[in-house]
Design a protein that fits this description.
Strand content of chain A: under 5%
Structural class of chain A: mainly alpha
Number of domains of chain A: 2
Order of helices and strands of chain A: HHHHHHHHHH
Largest sheet of chain A: none
Number of helices of chain A: 10
Oligomer: homotetramer
Distance between the termini of chain A: 78 Å
DNA sequence: TATGAATGAGGGTTCATTCAT
DNA sequence: GATGAATGAACCCTCATTCAT
C-alpha cells in the first residue's frame, strides 16, 4: 500500500486513521500498531512524522477542535437576527454532535483522560454564546431570571444526552424508525421545548398579578 | 497491611480500590498493579478473587448499577404525587450525578468502551420514567406535544452536561463561589426552567379555543 | 533451566550474568536480553527483581565496590608495620586489578559513562592511603618532597597501565611466557622500582653537603 | 546551516562532531542522530559520506591515532640527547593525555570495545621507546635491573592514572587550585620521582668499584 | 551533494496471567 | 487465603540503514 513517498499525504493518512482508532478505544486503549496497520505503514513511520503517541493525540485533538470551531462559529456569523442565530447554532451543534461520532467520542475520551484541550475549546464556544444569551435577556428575548450559562446548559445538555443514549433508547423503548428519523423527530420536538425555556413570562406574571 | 485472613473483606477492599482506579483511568488505562497497590495486597490476590481484570470490571459495573438503581428508585417510590415524584427523582438524580464522581466517570468510560451494562440500567430507569411522564401528559400535567422520552432528555440531559462542564465553566467564565454553591444555584435555576418545559400551554390553548 | 522458584538464587544468577555482560560491553552496549539469555530466564524476570536496567547496573557496581573494599582494606589491616602494609596493599591491589578483569573493565566503563559510584569508592581508598603515606613521610620512610597523592599515583598508576596494555605488549614486543608469568615478573621489577620512588634521599644529600 | 555544497568540508565537520559524541558516550551509546544534529545535517548524509556507523568510528580512531603519533613522535625526533628526548617525550605525553580529553576518552572506549586500532598505535610508540630505554641502560643512564617495558610502564602509567582520577582527587582530598595548577604541580613532582626511578644505583656501583 | 520518507529490528518496560509455595 | 516467582505478549520508542527524489 502507501508506497508513495509523500510525507504530507502520509501524515494525513496517519491522522485520519488515528482519529478513528482513538475515537474507538481512547488514548490508553489504542496502540500505534493499530494505527499503523490501519493505514498500511510501518510502526516507526508514525513516530517519524509525529514523534510521540502523546503528540499524535494532541494533533488529533487540535484538528478536531479546529473543525468544531469552524463548523459552529461560521454558522453563527452568517445569521441575521439573534433568534435566527440561536436557531442556526443549535441546528449546527445538533448536527455536529449527532453525526460526527468521532468528534463526539474523542471529546468524551479526552474529558475523562483529563486532556483538557478540547474541553476548553468547547467551553470557549459556550462562553461566547453566553454573551449572546445575556444580550437576549436584556432585549427581553430570553428569560432573565436565570444565568445565561444555565440557559445554555438547558440548551446543549439535551443534545449531548440524546446522542449518547439514543441507540439504547431505540432498543429499550422499541422506538420505530431509523436513527436518522429519530434524530429528526427529536430535533423538531426539542426546538419546540427549548423555545418555552427561553420564553419571557411577562404575560403570565402580569395576568397573575392582575388576578 | 491487610493481614486479616478474611476473604470477604479483602474482596470488598479490592472492589473499592478498583472503583477508584477505574473511575480515574478507565479500563485500558488501569492496571491490576495500581489496584493491588491501592489496597495493599499482592498482585496475584486480585485474580484469586476475581479471576480476570475484565471480570473485576464487570463486578465493579454491576455494583455501581445496583447502587444507582437503589438510590434513584427508592426515591421515586416514597413520593406521594406525580409532581412530587418528578421533583424528588430529579433532585436525587442531580445529587447522584453531581456528587458521585466515581459513578459518573465510570458510566462514561463504560459507554465509550462499549460496556453496555451500566448504560442499559440507566436507560431502563429512564424508560420506566417515560411511563410516568406519559401518564402526566394524559393527566394534563405535562406538555403533550412531544414524546415522553424527549421530555426526559430535556430533563436529565442538562444535569449530565452541567456535571461535565461545570469546572471548566467556573474557570472560563470566572464564576464566583465554590463548586457546591454553583451546584446549588444551578439546581434552583434548573428547576425553574424545567417547570416551563413541562408546563401545559393552557393560555395558548385558551386563545386557540377563543379563535 | 532455572525453573527453581527461588527468588534469591535467581537474583544472584542475574547479578552474576549482568556483571559479565556489562563488563564485556558496558551499560549502553548491553541489553537485558543478553543477560536474561545468559542465565536462562525470561526477559521480564530481570525487571521483576531489579526493576530497571539502570538499577541493575547500580547494584552491580555496588556489589563490585563492596568486593574491592573488602579485598584491599582487609589486607591492609592485617599488616604489622607500615612498610609491610604498603607492600601487602600493593600486592593485593595488583592482584585485584590484574586478575579481576570484570572489576577492572566495569570500573573503566563506569568512569567513561560518568557513573561515579565506583570511582568514588576507589578514590576513597586512595585517599585513606594518603594518610598512611603522609605518616611515612613524617617518619622519614617516604620521600617528603612530594605530595602523598603523587606518590600514590606513582604507585598505583603503573599497575593500572600494565593491566591495560600487557596483552598488547606481549604481542608487539613478542615477550615470552604466559600472561601469568609476565605478571609475576612485572610485579617483582615493579616492587624494586617503587622502593626507589619512596626512598628518602638522605645519603645523597649528605654526600652533596659534604662536597 | 551548512548549506555549502562542499563534500569535503561536510565530511570533516561530521568527523569533528563524531569525535566529540563518541568521546562522550562511546560507540554503543552514540547515535548517528546525535552526530548529524551536532553538525546540522540530515541523518542520511553521514552514511552517504561514511557508509557505516562502524566505518565512521574507524575513521575517527584512525584520525586520532594519526594525531597522537605526530604529536609524540615529532617531539622525540627534535631532541638532541637521550635524556632530553625522554624529558621531551614525557612532557609531550603528559600534555597530550592531560589535555586532549577527546583522545583520552576515545582511547579508553576503544580499548573496552575491543577496537584495538588505537591501542596498537599506542603500544607501537611505547615499543619504539623501549629501544631508547634499552640503549640508556647500556649507556649506564637507566637502571639496568628491570625490563625497559617495566620502566616505561612506571613512566607512563602514572600519567594515565592521574588524568583519570585527578578530578575525583581534587574533590575527595579537597585539593586547592584549578585543575591546570594541579596538573602543573603534579608534573613537577612526577619528574622528580621519575628521575629516581631511572637513576642508576651508584652506591652499588661504588661498592662494585671498591671490590 | 543532500534530504527526508520509509523500514525493520531490537530495546526497555508494563502487564495480565499462571503457578508453586 | 495469600505471596511472589516466572512467563510471554504487547507497547512505545530508538536507531541504523535504504532509497526515491
Amino acid at each position: 500500500m502507501r508506497k508513495a513517498r509523500d510525507g504530507e499525504s502520509t501524515k494525513e493518512a496517519v491522522l485520519t486513521a488515528a482519529k478513528q482508532v482513538f475515537a474507538e478505544r481512547g488514548f490508553a486503549g489504542s496502540s500505534l500498531a493499530m494505527i499503523s496497520k490501519k493505514c498500511g505503514i510501518s510502526d516507526g513511520l508514525i513516530l517519524h512524522h509525529y514523534k510521540n503517541k502523546q503528540n499524535l493525540y494532541h494533533e488529533v485533538l487540535e484538528d478536531l477542535a479546529k473543525g468544531y470551531l469552524e463548523t459552529v462559529f461560521k454558522t453563527g456569523q452568517e445569521s441575521h437576527t439573534q433568534e435566527q442565530m440561536i436557531d442556526d447554532v443549535l441546528r449546527a451543534t445538533f448536527k455536529f454532535w449527532s453525526e460526527d461520532t468521532i468528534y463526539n467520542r474523542i471529546s468524551l475520551w479526552a474529558f475523562l483522560e483529563n486532556q483538557t484541550e478540547l474541553l476548553e475549546k468547547e467551553t470557549n464556544i459556550t462562553a461566547s454564546l453566553t454573551a449572546v444569551v445575556g444580550q437576549m435577556q436584556m432585549d427581553g428575548k430570553a428569560d432573565p431570571r436565570v444565568d445565561p450559562v444555565t440557559l445554555l446548559t438547558m440548551t446543549i445538555g439535551p443534545i449531548h444526552f440524546w446522542t449518547r443514549y439514543r441507540n439504547q433508547f431505540k432498543e429499550t423503548l422499541q422506538l420505530d424508525g431509523t436513527i436518522e428519523e429519530l434524530n429528526q423527530s427529536f430535533l423538531e420536538q426539542f426546538l419546540i421545548l427549548i423555545q418555552k425555556v427561553y420564553q419571557v413570562e411577562n404575560k403570565t406574571s402580569t395576568e397573575k398579578e392582575s388576578e
